[in-house]
Amino acid sequence: MNPRMLFIGLLALLIGGCAALRQQLEPPVLTLAGIQLREATLFEQRYRLRLRLQNPNDTALPISGVHCRLFINEREFAQGVSPAAVEVPRFGEAVLEVDVVSDLRRVLEQLRDAQGRQAGSVDYRLTGKVALEGRPVTLPFEYRGRFDLGALP
Known about the structure:
Helices cover about 20% and strands about 50% of the residues. By secondary structure, the chain is of the alpha+beta class. It has one domain (about 25-150): Immunoglobulin-like, CATH 2.60.40.
């Protein structure tokens, strides 16, 4: 085989591989599907968040981990990480659980702020990033929501 043709072939493969790595992926849409108190001590509280991940991409997202922060009424309340792996199918969804940690100071701040507010609704914000299996990129996410305290039993 001609060395020049071999070089051109290898160059074409390299350029094609780089283009595949640069494929723009939209971040998944993460929403808070549930929260559960797991453990409470004087200094630390642990919660389990159930996150619903929706994939807006035309390719599956092989998620290998997640880091997230939960803000309540614009104050950071808890944060956590999970090495749990889940593959979110193209244009599909999956649920992932993440344990997050809060501390006494953050809980007391929320209680103090609640006294100054009328009972009603609570705004929350979920931010973070997901890591993709076999890819050197992370995808950031942010979701804002509100829940109505009056609807609680």
